[in-house]
Every structure is written in C-alpha cells, then in structure tokens.
Recover the amino acids of this structure.
C-alpha cells in the first residue's frame, strides 16, 4: 500500500477514534454530573457488610458486597453493591459508610471512590486515550505526502 493510499484509511480510523472519544467523554461528563447531584443530596448512614455475592461471567468471578443499614426512619435496608472485584475488597462484618437518597434507600451506595466515580474515571480515560489516538492519526494522515 502506497503512502497516498494509506491517507484515507488513516483519516477514517482517526475519525472513528474521535467519534468514540466524544461519546466516551460525554458519558463521563454525564455520570460525573449525576454523581455530584447524588452526593449533594445524599443522606449518610453507617452500614455493615453481611455477605459477598458471587457473580460468574465467562469463567470469571467477582464478589459484590451486600450491606445493610438503617435509614433516617429506622427502617433496615439490604443492598447489593453494583461494583464487584476479585479478590473482594471487602469482608463480611466490615463497617462501611452508606450514601442514599431518602426517597430511594434501596438504591444506596457505599461511600467509596470506585463505587461513586468508577464509570466516570474509566470513560474519561477511554475518551482521553481515543482523543489522542484519533488526533494523532489525523495529523499523520495530513503529513503523508501524496506521490
């Protein structure tokens, strides 16, 4: 393939990377805004991890902590964390801080960086990397001389 023939391919791939970057960065911004809004109005309560639920997918296992806490009315709630890990970052009996919206206590989250900001950070990182790759490919396509 001549350098002139590579130019359209580099442009196309560069544009695909830039498109993915924009979508990823928008998702990151949206989830960041949503988390900030959640934190601004969240009630806090102490909680305890009561079990670790195993989720299996394609021969891999992740352990999702299940925690209980009492809301401001004294009602007990049991919630499974949406984030899991292998090995587990938590142990049964561990005390955790819980954040929840008073009207929706069954959607509570543990007060931890990854639980709150994980998607925002991951999507922001993917977006930044794709932005650099896409821009680099478009610059490379521009620098290629047609024969």
């Amino acid at each position: 393939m001549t350098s002139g023939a590579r130019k359209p391919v580099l442009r196309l791939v560069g544009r695909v990377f830039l498109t993915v970057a924009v979508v990823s960065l928008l998702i990151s911004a949206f989830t960041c805004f949503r988390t900030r809004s959640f934190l601004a109005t969240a009630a806090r309560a102490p909680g305890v991890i009561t079990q670790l639920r195993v989720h299996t997918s394609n021969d891999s296992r992740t352990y999702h902590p299940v925690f209980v806490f009492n809301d401001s009315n004294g009602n007990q709630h049991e919630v499974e964390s949406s984030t899991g890990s292998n090995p587990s970052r938590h142990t049964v009996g561990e005390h955790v801080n819980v954040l929840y919206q008073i009207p929706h206590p069954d959607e509570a989250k543990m007060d931890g960086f990854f639980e709150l900001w994980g998607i925002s950070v991951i999507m922001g990182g993917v977006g930044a990397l794709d932005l650099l790759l896409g821009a680099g490919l478009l610059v490379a396509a521009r620098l290629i001389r047609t024969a």
Strands lie at 43-57, 60-70, 76-80, 95-101, 104-110. The chain has one domain: 3-143. Helices lie at 3-41, 113-143. Residues 3-41 form the longest helix (39 residues).
